[in-house]
Structures are given as structure tokens and as C-alpha cells.
Amino acid sequence: MFNKILIANRGEIALRVIRACKEMGIRSVAVHSTADADAMHVRMADESVCIGPPSSMQSYLSIPNIISACEITGAEAIHPGYGFLSENANFVQIVQDHGLTFIGPTADHINMMGDKITAKDTMKRLGVPCVPGSLGGVATIEEAHAVSAEMGFPVIVKATAGGGGRGMKVAKTVDDLDEAFSTARSESKAAFGNDEVYIEKYLTLPRHIEIQVFGDGKGRAVHLGERDCSLQRRHQKVLEECPSPAIDAETRARIGKTCADAVAAINYAGAGTIEFLYENDEFYFIEMNTRLQVEHPVTEAVFGVDLVREQILVASGEPMSFVQEELAPNGHSIECRINAEKLPEFRPSPGKISQFHAPGGLGVRMDSHLYDGYKIPPYYDSLIAKLIVHAPDRASAIARLRRALGEMIVDGIDTTTPLHNALLQEPDILSGDYDIHWLEKWLETYS
Q1: Is residue 285 part of a domain?
Q2: Which residues pair with 168 in a beta bridge?
Q3: Range of the domain at 305
């Protein structure tokens, strides 16, 4: 087992990993930019190292600075959290070249799933159902028209190196294709340094369903059910729940086994999420995230596991602490992402927290790095808290979430809390009858 782990991240996810380390008796090292010198993860860690100025490129994305922090502190392993360098295969290789352990999958697996075309081909080979689409990258507009005509409109043009909704454009008709193709390529080039795109059939009313998998890197893997992440704005998740109100136990077991078998076949190590579009009782693979997800707490609540602890165990060479037969879902969990944003424009709202109170009580969890007097810097993602509830059933979870939202106090800035309060009054949300387009349409009338 490791003696000391460096967390190459910030905010609530850095705190999440630090807490797991403390419970396991492992010393933790926080890294931070100058803008985060007073951040809670810096206060909570056993040691801290400043790795650069506010710019992410010069701090949290600076591989030499992070490696140097390990050498200075004697950390043996690095936990990447999510975002930043968590899915950077080059970083993983450099970590290993320096005799350190990366708490996550191998560089080969990150490369395999980081390229959307390779990932899709791999999943097809492993028996995972995929969305109909081009066989590889589409290089010219003439080829784009030919591929789209064959599968029929609407279609979606996607960056092969994409993520987070960037480099994705929908063409509802043939007249939309030229602009969608050129815009997706230019966005991809700007965001990822790679303008290669591919084309898939655009499903009209799907849900976004993702399967949590976990492998030991030695040919054994399990699944921990599904999360429904269909409530999205501009491809960014807003609210997630486990289990999905649209999936029954038989379907869950079937797709879960398919995913677990697939990652076992490639000797995948650690946590991963296989994401699908789900429509008319059919699953269509869209991508695999080779890291811990923002919404992992809902899975932890329903299955009673600590996914970060398991990541650390497997990375240190220990076996997983559970087998598939021991993983039975219990109750229902929902997570609200609370962002520092001003509604209805969703404009970033950094600033000083004059008062913060986290809700509590049975079945309530608040993952946040806020505290009274904390100054939210303007340089990073606007996520400031995740409010997670767990209850025996979905109706009880919604009631508990309403109560918890009412208890939460975040003064001094604007947040998206009013949005969640409004959503929990909507009949479609209460019944679970929504898809990935529902929120965007609803927001057109929200004010």
C-alpha cells in the first residue's frame, strides 16, 4: 500500500480523494496554483505544494511541475481526479517513467478510448452495441454527404478527440451539413489540436445512460449499475440519478454484464464509465470515460462502495474488495450540480462567499470545497458543490432533495440552486419522463 499520494487536481474532487486517503491511513499531498493558496483541499491535505500561477496551463496542466511536486514530497502515486490530466495518456507514461504509480488505467487504455473512432471499433469487437455511423474519420465534405445520405438525417458530426460537448454539431437536414461539418472541425482544431471528425446517426429522443465499471487489470471486472444523466445543458450534465427511472432490473443486468465483460477482456484497471444513448429499449455506445466521473457519488450511495478507495487498492496491487454477486442496488440516489453561475444566462459568478451552510440529515451528502470567506477564483470550472441524496425509493429521494436544497445557504454569489428547485416541481421530472433534449427545450421558457 502507498504511504503518500499526490492529488493532481483541485476543488471538491481533491477533497474527495484526500478524505479517502485519511480513512486509509495514507498521507496526502495537495498541489495548488497561486489562486488556490487558501483553498480547502490545501488546508485539508497533510502537505501542499504550489505548482504555478492561476493559469491551468501553468499549474494544474503542467506535467513537469506536478512531477517535481512528487519528487519534493516523496509521493509514490498520483490520483488525477477528473478533468485536467486525468485522461492524458502522455501524462500517465511520464508518471510511470519516473517510477511513480498513476491511480487509473494504463496509457494504452486511455489512448484506446480517447480516440472516439478507435473506442467505437474496440467496443464493437467486444460485443457492445454502437450508434450507426462512419467507419472512420470523415475528411471531406463530399465524403460527409455520402456517409450522411447512406444513414439518413438527422446526423451528428463529432470530433474524434472530443469531449465536454465541444466539436459536436447536429445536421437535421442535408442543408445543415456543410456548416455543421466545418464548424465541428474548426472547434475540434481549436480545442484539441486535431480537426478529425466522424459522423453518427442522430437519435431524436434518447436518454443518456452510463454504466459504471471497475476492473482489476488482471481480467476481472464488475459493473455497478447505471446512472441516468439525461438532464443536460449544452452537453453538460446538470442532474444525475441512480438507478435510471427508464431501466428495469433485467435490462440493467444485461447491459451491465456486457460492459463488465468488455473491460475484463482488455484487462482494464480501475474505474471507468461506458456511456450510451438509450432509445426504444436499445443501447448505443457513444464513449468511455477512463476516469472517475463527477457523478460517482450516486453510485456509491446506491451500491454502498467507496470508488476512490477501490481505485487506490487496485493501483497498489490489491484485489478489488467485492465481486459482482455482492453488488446489489439499494434505494435511489440523485445528485444536483451546483454551479457559481447567474441565471438565466448561466454567466459565471466568481466572488467571495459571505455565508455557507451545507445541508445535512439522513441520506444527505454535500461534496464541496466552499467555506465562509472563501473567494471563488474566476479561472476554473464553475462547479462549486455537489448535493447528493439517498433514499429508499425515487419519490422519497426527490422529497429529500427538495428539503436539502432548502437548507443550503450560499451567500455572496449567484448559484444554480434556483434551477434545481424549479426542476423538482416539473411533472416530467417527477415522473422520470425526460430525454437529453428535455432541459434545453424547458430552458427556452425558464426565467
Answers
A1: yes
A2: 158
A3: 207-443
Residue 243 resides in a domain: yes
Last residue of a domain, one of 181, 201, 221: 201
Helices (H), 231-356: 249-265, 296-303, 307-315
Neighbours of 292 (CB within 10 A): 25
pTM (predicted TM-score):
0.89
Which residues have a catalytic role annotated? 291
Residue-by-residue pLDDT tens, the chain, 447 positions: 999 999 999 999 999 999 999 999 999 999 999 999 999 999 999 999 999 999 999 999 999 999 999 999 999 999 999 999 999 999 999 999 999 999 999 999 999 999 888 998 999 999 999 988 887 889 999 999 999 998 889 999 999 887 667 789 999 999 999 999 999 999 888 888 888 999 988 888 999 999 999 999 999 999 999 999 999 999 899 999 999 999 999 999 999 999 999 999 999 999 999 999 999 999 999 999 999 999 999 999 999 999 999 999 999 999 999 999 999 999 999 999 999 999 999 999 999 999 999 999 999 999 999 999 999 999 999 999 999 999 999 999 999 999 999 999 999 999 999 999 999 999 999 999 999 999 999 999 886
Indicate if 214 and 357 belong to the same structural domain: yes
Laid out side by side, the sheet with 166-171 consists of 166-171, 155-163, 197-201
Number of folded domains in the chain?
Answer: 3
Q: What is the CATH number of the domain that holds 436?
A: 3.30.470.20
Query: What beta strand segments (E) does 130-268 contain?
Result: 155-163, 166-171, 197-201, 207-216, 221-233, 236-242
The CATH number linked to 163 is 3.30.1490.20
Q: What is the CA radius of gyration of the chain?
A: 21
Last residue of a domain, one of 143, 168, 201: 201
CATH of the domain at 55: 3.40.50.20
